[in-house]
């Protein structure tokens, strides 16, 4: 026997009521195509880092702990890490050159220096994400291979590209990452920073073009000797070279430097020296005690400028680097040693 509907209720009204009840109970509607129904946005946060490691979190990380140099760039984009690790202060208490504009009084520390990561302090900062930079294809700042597992027990780890490509590529990568962390990158301040960077690049190119014979050596030094930076490995130096600057490329040594004893300090004569400003490098006023440094042609000519192997590669950070380069090159003579 075919059932009949109660009087006054049409089949259309019954179907409509069933659909409403199904919606109330969270059930799919009869005959609906679930594949075509709009899906809610996925709130998870994903990032593939410079190692090719996929980092995924249920939401965008808010409590970030970062290597000092990385944190300095993120700071320029308005991201405020809750903590940092790596170089922070010099012996006299002043900030290391890698700190940038970070307010050291407002962030926690998970260890100072390049080999002093404090795991307990890191855990106490309750990070959602730990971020560092790559120093080569397989090596990260501060976090060695034997520390990766301990770090990832505390929080996911992301490593950012840092070496072997021009600075402009690193700047763009940092900006994308900052945007993923919630940075607003279309602010007037950041738009002005990009204009400043373009202007600084133009000024640096013009300064270099005006000194076609300028030969430049890039160094850091300690009590054991002087190390000559290999420009093909450093983002800022690759960009300097693209501007036309003649940078000495050492013939020997390891990936980033050729280290010479003080007796060999004069192997690569140059008109201008750009010397590392980081805390672990002896500074020019300290180097006066080393006769072979004092005998270098560039030192005798008073042509020693500033350089950091960890340039702050935000738009405003690299703009400042290029502005300093333009001023240093403009003030330098390019006939101190003559043609090599």
Automatic annotation (TrEMBL):
The keyword Lipid metabolism does not apply. Residues 62-336 form the Fe/B12 periplasmic-binding domain. It is found in: Cell envelope. It comes from the Bacteria. Keywords: Signal, Transport. Its main location: other. It holds the Pfam family Peripla_BP_2. InterPro entries: ABC_transptr_periplasmic_BD, Bact_iron-sidero_bind, TAT_signal. Gene3D superfamilies: Nitrogenase molybdenum iron protein domain. GO terms for biological process: iron coordination entity transport. Residues 1-31 form the signal peptide. GO terms for cellular component: outer membrane-bounded periplasmic space. Belongs to the bacterial solute-binding protein 8 family. This is Iron complex transport system substrate-binding protein. It comes from Pseudonocardia hierapolitana.
